[in-house]
Design brief:
The chain is α/β, with parallel strands linked by helices and 449 residues long. It is built from 18 helices and twelve strands. The strands form two sheets. Strands 9-8-7-6-10-11-12 form a seven-stranded mixed sheet, with helices on both faces. Strands 1-2-4-3-5 form a five-stranded mixed sheet. It is globular, with a radius of gyration of 21 Å. The model has no long low-confidence stretch (mean pLDDT 98). The structure holds NADPH dihydro-nicotinamide-adenine-dinucleotide phosphate (NDP) and (2Z)-2-iminopentanedioic acid (2IT).
């Protein structure tokens, strides 16, 4: 961890006091505040307007009951959340996560990060996040539908294409978004395409949105390596996770000439030294809703499934954590560094612990934080909103070209901001500061609200 500037420290102390026990939220706030010392030194007007205090406090936090019935008729009660964090730049925007680990602190950490990530994309979107402690694993389509309908029956009153626009995240993909959109449409009697993103292509979805987070992460690594004239070509890459972000990170890394040798899930990992067969992975995960152990089995003798372990023990040149928060610790970072890793980029949100990030910085490993490296997903969501607003539908080529341009521009802006604020090569500082300044300036312009 880095020290906190004396003007920033009281803000952090207030956050700790006001939000007891929310460890992930504290971690996310601290990581941003640690990098803002040079910003408050340069902008006394931010301090005077208490912008840091205001940005740390969500505009609105919604918690609601989600009752539903399983296929046997048994009643379940889950908890739903939506944290509408900051609307200085546009409608609240951010995903919904369905996972048993979801609680208010998790949603707040994700919503807080989303503010700055969305700002760095340069798109007109504010920050928010939501979800539920519902576990979709092992549930039938009918059960997932009933849960989604109950969830949206409450959430719909807070949404709108100009108000709050959710999308997917862990446990929320095309199937869940379909049920959520259907229920919103039914309750409101409005075909309001722009109220959700990540939709299916036949009902208002945008080409490349499904692929965008993973593709964007690969492009971001390519940009970081490109500063020194290097590229992904010929490099061995470790990917963790095997969901939406991981699958399309694998696909794009391989298209750019890298060889991805691992994927994982919460049961263990697969080592596939010849390179992951991404079409087989899609079949197992997207069509069959299977596990990475099934992938290893179908791959015959080529790949090995290692239960209850993580991918970071495998030697590789580049590491892309694409599963979940705090999945890569200081110890894992030490192993990666000893094995010669040269670049790490966060496909997931906050997957690296503060100790891991410090170890990478001290070892001179290129490190792309999630706020930059996984921003391609939400940026393409903003493109989906743009297409919905104009009732248009772009081609694959145009959409992918836009994503490539956005990631190029985002990398440039983050890189240059780090230099401007005296932290050359520090993408964490660059992303936090670039995002913060955009939001802070808009908040100042809007007055004390
Ligand atoms: P998916 O639900 O598609 O996949 C999640 C993957 O991560 C699965 O392989 C899952 O394994 C694994 N995982 C989840 N939780 C845990 C856990 N507690 N321990 C171990 N493994 C876990 O989600 P996404 O791919 O959409 O999201 C992955 C990450 O990327 C998240 O951090 C998300 O916030 C972030 N992200 C997603 C974006 C998007 O557009 N979808 C955009 C930007 C960031 P298992 O099946 O065993 O649970
Ligand atoms: O963390 C994220 O950026 C997402 N889950 C995607 C959010 C979005 O609105 O597309």
């Amino acid at each position: 961890m880095r020290a906190l500037d004396e003007k920033v420290l009281p803000v952090y102390e207030t956050v700790l006091r006001r939000n007891p026990g929310e460890q992930e939220f504290h971690q996310a706030v601290r990581e941003v505040l640690e990098t803002l010392g040079p910003v408050v030194a340069k902008h006394p007007e931010y301090v005077e307007a208490k912008l840091l205090e205001r940005i740390c406090e969500p505009e609105r936090q919604i918690i609601f009951r989600v009752p539903w019935q399983d296929d046997r008729g048994e009643v379940h009660v889950n908890r739903g959340f939506r944290v509408e964090y900051n609307s200085a730049l546009g409608p609240y925007k951010g995903g919904l996560r369905f996972h048993p680990s979801v609680n208010l602190g998790i949603v707040k950490f994700l919503g807080f990060e989303q503010i700055f990530k969305n700002a760095v994309t340069g798109m007109p979107i504010g920050g928010g996040k939501g979800g539920s402690d519902f576990d979709p694993r092992g549930r039938s389509d009918a059960e997932v539908m009933r849960f989604c309908q109950s969830f949206m029956t409450e959430l719909h009153r807070f949404l709108g294409e100009h108000t709050d626009v959710p999308a997917g995240d862990i446990g929320v993909g095309a199937r869940e978004l379909g049920f959520l959109f259907g229920q919103y449409k039914r309750i409101t009697n409005r075909y309001e395409s722009g109220v959700l993103t990540g939709k299916g292509l036949s009902w208002g979805g945008a080409r490349v949105r499904k692929e965008a987070t993973g593709y964007g992460c690969a492009y971001f690594v390519q940009e970081m390596l490109g500063v020194d004239g290097r590229s992904l070509d010929g490099l061995d890459v470790l990917v963790s996770g095997s969901g939406n972000v991981a699958i399309y990170a694998v696909e794009k890394v391989q298209a750019l000439g890298g060889r991805v040798v691992t994927v994982s899930d919460s049961s263990g990992y697969v080592h596939d030294p010849d390179g992951i067969d991404v079409e087989l992975l899609k079949q197992v995960k997207e069509v069959d809703r299977g596990r990475v152990s099934d992938y290893a089995e179908l791959r015959g003798g080529r790949a090995r499934f290692v239960p209850d372990r993580q991918v970071w023990d495998v030697p590789g040149d580049v590491a892309l954590p694409c599963a979940t928060q705090n999945e890569l610790t200081g110890r894992d970072a030490a192993t990666l560094i000893a094995n010669g890793v040269i670049a790490v980029a966060e496909g997931a949100n906050m997957p690296c612990t503060p100790e891991a990030i410090r170890a990478f910085r001290e070892a001179g490993v290129l490190f792309g934080p999630g706020k930059a490296a996984n921003a391609g997903g939400v940026a393409t969501s903003a493109l989906e909103m743009q297409q919905n607003a104009s009732r248009d539908s772009w081609t694959w080529e145009h959409s992918e070209q836009r994503l490539r341009e956005i990631m190029h521009e985002l990398h440039r802006s983050v890189y240059e901001t780090a230099e401007e604020y005296g932290a050359p090569g520090d993408y964490v500082a660059g992303a936090n500061i670039a995002g913060f300044v955009r939001v802070a300036d808009a908040m100042l312009a809007h007055g004390l609200i």
